[in-house]
Amino acid sequence: MDDSTKRVLVRLIRRIPSPMLKTSLCKWAHLSKEDLRLLDFTQPKCVITENLLSLCEEKRTTVKHITELEMIYIIENPNHGLWCGFQLLDAREDAPSIELTQFKEQFKTQLTELISHVSIKIKKHTDEAVWIRIAWGDNFTKPNHLKPTYAVHHLQTPYVFVTGLTGKHKPYLIQALVLATRYGSMKDAHLSGKNLFAIRDLLMRQYQQVFPTKLPKPLQEKNEVPTNPNIEKEHAENAENRLQMACEAFGNGTLPQLQKAVYQLETKFRDQSNKTLTDIEQPFRGVVEFASTNLLESLRHCVSSGIASTPVTPLLSSITQKGRNYFVITDKGD
């Protein structure tokens, strides 16, 4: 192995947590069972790394082999970095019939025509997702395997999820994806987060939704003795209505673990008590961000418990209804 290949391998091994290292290496076809027996995973990670380097030197490991190991780890542990959702538009008539082999050939052909030095690896996962790893170079430099881009596309759907993509390479990726999937264009879905499965489920509506109804479900009977039947009934009805509206706005059951929602304000300042800002013609700009380990669950709880008012404002319900978590608020509307 040359020095650049060693750097890629060492960085990858350091990135994989010690408890997951053995599992990832066992799935790596480059190492045999006999090779794995030579590694003592009870040793410190620095020692394991050195032993693994020596083993890979003997087996003449290449960058191609290392990228296979990296994809094994990333596919099993995708929640690293920031994932952004995109939506393909204007599907051609033959778009639903695209198969994996056709997609791989056309994607690689399109991207290599745009950039001469680029490394592309495509792998289909068990959940039918197509994983794409791209190491970018240019006309003068080799692909940089230390900073790859990952894209995930479910065939026969118009959705793509991307991480590690720079503005410089974004047009190339979009063009290659649009042509390979037989669509007309691709737009930013304004949905991003560290949890790939959360933004996938939200954008593809793969969670339990609740639709509006005028007939709320009856409340389960409680053993508590009501102090006043009329008051208890009214409270119960209000609680049931709040829960219904909360579930209609954000979903029922387990919700996608979205971490934040961002609202960029570009509106005229309105406050008669502050003439200084009100008289300014230019829009007032600001950013409001809601953050939580599970934002949708937190918002649903706020509504159902009465902390937030009902009906739910469209500014919040649009997160699920539109499948996005970035909004620009203007005087003309979003």
Task: From the structure above, extract its key features.
S-adenosylmethionine decarboxylase; alpha+beta; six-stranded antiparallel beta sheet; three-stranded mixed beta sheet
Helix-strand layout with pairing:
Blueprint: H1 3-15, H2 18-26, H3 33-37, H4 45-58, H5 63-76, E1 83-89, H6 100-114, E2 118-124, E3 129-136, E4 149-154, E5 159-163, H7 170-181, E6 185-193, H8 196-203, H9 229-250, E7 260-267, H10 275-278, E8 284-291, H11 295-304, H12 314-321, E9 326-330
Parallel strand pairs: 7-9
Antiparallel strand pairs: 1-5, 1-6, 2-3, 3-4, 4-5, 7-8
Helix pairs in contact: 6-7, 9-11
Protein described:
There is one protein chain. By secondary structure, the protein is α+β, with helices and mostly antiparallel strands. The protein has three domains: 74 residues; 121 residues, S-adenosylmethionine decarboxylase (4-Layer Sandwich); 102 residues, no CATH class. The chain has a six-stranded antiparallel beta sheet, sandwiched between helices. The longest helix is centred in the C-terminal third of the chain and has 22 residues.
Q: What's the gist of this structure?
A:
With about 325 residues, the protein is an alpha+beta fold. It is built from 12 helices and 9 strands.
